[in-house]
Design goal:
Elements (H helix, E strand, L loop, with lengths): L4 E2 L2 H21 L5 E5 L5 H17 L2 E5 L7 H13 L5 E4 L9 H7 L11 H8 L8 H12 L8 E5 L6 H10 L3 E5 L6 H5 L4 E4 L17 E4 L3 E3 L2 H7 L4 H10 L2 E3 L4 H4 L4 E2 L7 H19 L2
Parallel strand pairs: 1-11, 2-3, 2-4, 5-6, 5-7, 7-8, 8-11
Antiparallel strand pairs: 9-10
Helix pairs in contact: 1-12, 2-12, 3-4, 6-7, 6-12
The structure holds guanine (GUN).
């Protein structure tokens, strides 16, 4: 079997960011300064890392950004006031509320309060509806990044069997809709699916978005399939590291240094069966922020169209 193609998310993200930087320059020449506001509630370490990375990328591409950091104790009402004020601001084109929010906050209500035209996460019901009905709108960054990756690496999905494992509002559902809109034959699987391996073995394109380390194994993959791994999980047990990464001294060394290593939802052993796959790290994850930047510029342009 020929060597699989590695779908290099970092390289593809660089291509997208370079194009977005040019669009930013074009907008600025017309007197439009694209701006993104990010709301980060409390002190969740992972969220802080993601948000810092989003703000830094804005600066690299010439996009104005503003971070609002209310404490963990903030109320839904206080957050609603913040969102309404951002909705009204002329200099803000995109509003992102970093998830998850504390349990006492009404997440759905807040996401619905964001103006659909500034909803750069594509989570507002109006944008969900636009995606469902095939109208232009802002689309969730991670699945949009997967489509961008397939398009840029000439992987045609028309007529193919695409199987998505996971039905989250952030990835699984919008991913399925994007693949359907691109004329794939789409199956959505989840934790209650009967005989999952029988379904996944039918996939020409298999997307794993379930958050379970190395869950998709070689017996679940059709030889020659395209494997898209959306999972970002951490292994903290030495036995798991040895099992998933045998003969991989680099990962072993990383584990000894850091006490954990990152793994996706697909067992790396299964990648060898594929025609193309996204590595973890350095695959789909790298595209999410690039697409957020792209959505911010798109929102800035659309609001003035
Ligand atoms: N938390 C994890 N992923 C995301 C995302 O794509 N958007 C937001 N707002 N929060 C997240």
């Amino acid at each position: 079997m020929p060597e699989p193609t590695v779908l290099d998310g970092i390289a593809i993200a660089s291509e997208i960011k370079a194009e977005v930087a040019l669009e930013v320059q074009g907008l600025k020449a017309r007197g439009v300064n694209p701006g993104l506001a990010v709301i980060l509630v409390g002190n969740v370490a992972a969220s802080e890392i993601y948000v810092r990375s989003k703000v830094k990328t804005c600066a690299e591409l010439g996009i104005f950004s503003e971070m609002l950091t209310p404490p963990e104790t903030v109320t839904t009402e206080e957050l609603l006031v913040m969102v309404q004020s951002l909705n009204a601001r002329e200099d803000i084109d995109g509003i992102l509320i970093q998830l998850p929010l504390p349990a006492h906050v009404n997440t759905k209500l807040l996401l619905e309060a964001i103006s659909p035209d500034k909803d750069v996460d594509g989570f507002h019901p109006v944008n969900v509806g636009r995606l469902q009905s095939g109208q232009p709108g802002l689309q969730p960054c991670t699945p949009a990044g997967v489509m961008e990756m397939l398009r840029r690496r000439n992987i045609d999905v028309t007529g193919k069997n695409a199987v998505v494992i996971g039905r989250s509002d952030i990835v699984g559902k919008p991913m399925s809709m994007l693949l359907l809109n691109a004329s794939a034959t789409v199956t959505i699987c989840h934790s209650r699916t009967f005989d999952l391996p029988a379904v996944t073995r039918n996939a020409d394109i298999l997307v794993a978005a379930i958050g379970r380390p190395g869950f998709v194994n070689s017996t679940m993959v059709k030889p020659g399939a395209v494997l898209i791994d959306v999972g970002i999980n951490r292994l903290t047990d030495a036995n798991d590291v040895a099992r998933f990464f045998p003969n991989n001294p680099d990962r072993e060394a990383l584990f000894l240094r850091r006490g954990s290593v990152v793994i996706g939802d697909i067992d790396p052993a299964a990648f060898a069966l594929s025609s193309a796959y996204t590595p973890v790290p350095g695959g789909v994850g790298a595209l999410t922020i690039a697409m957020l930047m792209s959505n911010t510029v798109k929102a800035a342009a659309l609001r003035r169209a």
